[in-house]
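ok trying this again, last paste got cut off
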Amino acid sequence: MSGRDYLGEFEHIVVLALLRLEDRAYGVTVRQQIEYRTKREVSIGAVYATLDRLERKGYVTSHRGEPTPERGGRSKRFFRITAMGVAVSPPRFPTWLVSLFTLPEEESIVGDLFEEFSQLASKSGIALARRWYWRQTGKTIAHLAGTGFRVAPWSITAIVLGGFLLLRLAHGVPDKLLMLVTDRYLVYWSNHFQAYLWVLKGMWIEYLVGSAVVGCVVALAAKGREMVATMTLGVVLCAMAVVATVWVVTTTGDASYLWNMPWHLSDPFAIVMGGAFARARRSGARHRPSGA
């Protein structure tokens, strides 16, 4: 790296704070975000000195907001990351994945990953640091998921079993509703058979929505272990779908049933996505640095 492109450890941490804050990033919130993630005390002077240095290097831009009475008529100086700044940050998707599995008391894990990424990026370059970050993300998620299940195996098992029964109930609702509507408006459907076929095709979407709702319910029941519970249920359903498909293909000799596998696996995927949504909403409702 050249002197212009070189970023120190604290500069990387500031860049990561700007990415998380988006359009709410100014001196106070940046400092609070860094302290919240790294569990360290940081002076506001160090934050502004680093932000000014990043702006001179082209990683950050700034603009003035409107004056506010609570600041004595002074305006806030907002900061935004540039495309160059995004290029020196860790991948956002693995960061989001790790945050889904961390408990409130484990928030420092994300901060530790950020800190190690910053150190490695400063010493060995961004490309190597990003590859390291992806590997650590996989290991961290596997560890958190395994620990989460070992800490409360019986409660998670009970929640997964309840989710399985709820899924069977949720998947029966669209069929029953369709039967009621068909019986009540039989003459209409007889004259609009093509519309009836479209309704049948749309049943798959209703099943997916039902699965996502079940995932949300399971996640809400497994407070703090949302992703462990929903992923366990998803793995069980995937295993059942694979075993059932293999059995059908083996007994009938018709390999065309394999083409139904994506449809069978879409339910577990929707459940996990529902769990991720519930977890993200619950995580967002937790304490965040204030924007005072």
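PB: full thing came through this time. Residues 153-184 form the longest helix (32 residues).
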